[in-house]
Amino acid sequence: MNRRIAAFAIASVAILGLTACSGGAPEDTANDSADSGDSAPAEETTTDQSVEDACGIVIPQLTEASTAMSEIDMTAAEADPQATVDQFNSFVGTLGETVDSVSNAEVKEATAAVYEDFTALGDLLTKVVVEQDMSAAGELSAITGDVTASATALQELCS
What we know:
Blueprint: H1 2-17, H2 29-34, H3 39-45, H4 51-70, H5 74-79, H6 81-100, H7 105-130, H8 140-158
Helix pairs in contact: 1-4, 1-7, 1-8, 4-6, 4-7, 6-7, 7-8
């Protein structure tokens, strides 16, 4: 039964992870091609980063990470819960890198909120899936609600 809860929790998280990525990413190909030769000027010029430019960084990275997260093998999750949580935490790490790559204050704040919620969810998954602390499973609903709310706020900002 504990493994079923773990598989359900991870499947739920994978679905929620896609919430922030269901909107289209703004077109930002001009910036990418202009900065392809030298990354230092890109960091210098991002202080005046628009919401659209910031979302052009965030949404593709979230989409890629969410796609990887949605491919978590539930059978493997039951067999090796630690590896599954590690795979989830890899997604969270990518999200943290995304926060660091954004300088627009609004988008950075919204992305950081999603990151913090996913970090809390990763901690909870460790408790429930790896440590098999079923008393912590009751927190799953609240944390997934937080993830949904912060991801939706980011999606609305970027749409």
